[in-house]
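Follow-up to my post from last week.
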Amino acid sequence: MTKTPSIVDRIKSGDDRRIPFSVEFFPPRDEAAEARLWRTARDFEQLGPAFASITYGAGGSTRDRTVRITGQIAQETTLLPVAHLTAVGHSINELRAMVGSYADKGISNILVLRGDPPGDPLGEWEQHPEGVEYAEELVSLVRDLGDFHVGVASFPEGHHRSESLESDTKYLVRKLRAGAEYSITQMFFDVEDYLRLRDRVVACDPFEGAKPIIPEIMPITSLRSVRRMMELSGSKLPAALEERLTRAAGTGPEEDRAAVREEGIAYATEMGERLIAEGAPSLHFITLNFSRATREVLQNLGLAPAVALQP
Ligand SMILES: Cc1cc2nc3c(=O)[nH]c(=O)nc-3n(C[C@H](O)[C@H](O)[C@H](O)COP(=O)(O)OP(=O)(O)OC[C@H]3O[C@@H](n4cnc5c(N)ncnc54)[C@H](O)[C@@H]3O)c2cc1C
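User reply:
Got it. Predicted complex:
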C-alpha cells in the first residue's frame, strides 16, 4: 500500500498563519455531474485543501462510483482523498474487500461510519447478518487490516438515535479509543453545539478529547434544500438563522435564490470566524460538488490564496 500522509499530520503541518480547510464531495450520478466534479476538484487543487473526502452511498452503484472516484482523486489529482466507508448491507468479508480495494488504489485515509438504512435514513437500522452493528467495530476491523488512518463521525447536536448526549459522547469516545485519530462532525449551524461537544469529549476522556474534532460547515445556497437536508439528518436550523433565510427568501412563489445564497455565505463566514477564534483544528466544507460558495467563504475568511479561478 502506498504510504500517504494522515489527516492529522496534514492539518497539523499547515501554515501557522492560516487554519487548514478541507472539502467533501459526493459520487456524481451521471456523466455531466462527473464532469462538474472534476472541474470542481481542479478548482480546489489551486486552493490547497488539506484533504477531500468522498461520501459513500447506500445503493450498490453509488458504492462502485465512490471507490472509482476516490481512486481517481488519489491517482489523477494533487488532492489527498479520504474515503468514506459504511457498514450498511455489507458482510464483514465484503467490508474487508472494500478496504482492500481502497488500499489497492493507494488510499490509506478512511472515514468509518455505520451508515443509515437505504431509502429512509431515519428508519429502523438493520444489521447485516454477517456484518457489524456499530461503527466502533468497523474502526477495529479497518485498523486490523493494515496501516490505515481512520476518522469517525461526531454529532454536535447528538446523533438522532442516541438516548442522551452522555451516551452519544460515550460511544464517540469508544470509537476514538478503538483507534480513530480524529472525528468530523455532522453539519451544524450553532457553534455553541460544537463547543459543547468538544467540552463533553474532553470531560469524558481528556486523552481522546485531545484528538481533532473537525467541524463541518455547509454554506447554504437554497432554503428548500437545507430544510430537506435537516429533515433527513434529524437536526434543526437555529431560529435566528431560519428567520434570516426566510426573510432573504422573500414572499414570492419561488425563493429568492441569490438573496438566500448571500445570507448563507455570510452565515457560513460568521461560523468560520467564530470556530477559528475558538481554536477549531480546521474547517471541513460540504461543497455539493460546486466550488464557488465554499471559495467565497474561504476568501471572506482569508483562507484562499489569491488565484484566478473560473467564475
Ligand atoms: C462527517 C460525516 C460523514 C458521513 N458520511 C456518510 C456517508 O458517506 N455515507 C452514509 O451513508 N452516511 C454518512 N454519514 C451519516 C452516518 O452514517 C449516520 O449518521 C449514521 O446514522 C451514524 O453513523 P456513525 O458512524 O456515527 O454510527 P455509530 O457510531 O455506530 O452510532 C450510531 C448510533 O448508535 C449509538 N451507539 C454507538 N455505539 C454503540 C454501542 N456500542 N451500544 C449502543 N449504542 C451505540 C450511537 O450513540 C448512535 O446513536 C456521515 C455522517 C457524518 C457526521
